[in-house]
């Protein structure tokens, strides 16, 4: 950055500035005004009179006391209790070892031994499989739409009221082509108006967007939450989040480098949120391998389903 004359070079200073700016953005030390991903999340919070008018309602909806010191005291007691429970069991737990031979202590937890499937579980699996009839995936989508009406969430990009005959058939075909990554060609039927090449291309261009897919998924999640079987699994108040990494075959601003996972290529992390009712209620594309904890709050707050603010 400094030349032989001990002057700061413009090129070196620019590269250094951009590198530090990138690090600061990732650490959330610097925010970009108006940006959804890099903006200050505190700017979206209620402020001033709006917060005072809705404060009690927000506290009650989240189950928190109005006095912050009371909440901190309760959390402190819970943390202290958990620490004492773990410490009391640590010496007797043979699956946990504390290695102090290195420069820093290292905790080692032995993996759980795999259990053989009992015969009763094998019989149950076969019984359930026999109950599932062989059905074409596109027919399955149409049947699910008949129960949930998720295809109604797909509306025209410029003419919201524009509808055509058998639009759910076209939408199901386009969704199948995108989900299976097979393209539209295998689904084209020139003798079926809803499956002609022109209709499928028109449907994909005007109806398949991130906002419509998100709305359709929210309707599916809300419908599943009403099923008795899903309510046995859970109440929709607990969720898990995990990321899957993919190499991107094309150049895109949504990809990032990481030699460990992507080699010399660039890739993304698909961060998926799943409720305790086994429904995927939100997903975020993360460039490269940015720290996923940055996006946890975004996923919980921006999901559009009727789930009651699930906890991770």
UniProtKB/TrEMBL annotation:
Q: Which domain of life is it from?
A: Bacteria
Q: Which organism is it from?
A: Klebsiella pneumoniae
Print the organism lineage. Answer: Bacteria, Pseudomonadati, Pseudomonadota, Gammaproteobacteria, Enterobacterales
Looking up InterPro entries in the UniProt record yields: Tn3_Tnp_DDE_dom
Any one Pfam family here would be: DDE_Tnp_Tn3
Q: Where is the Tn3 transposase DDE domain?
A: 139-308
Q: What is this protein called?
A: Transposase (Identified by ISEscan HMM)
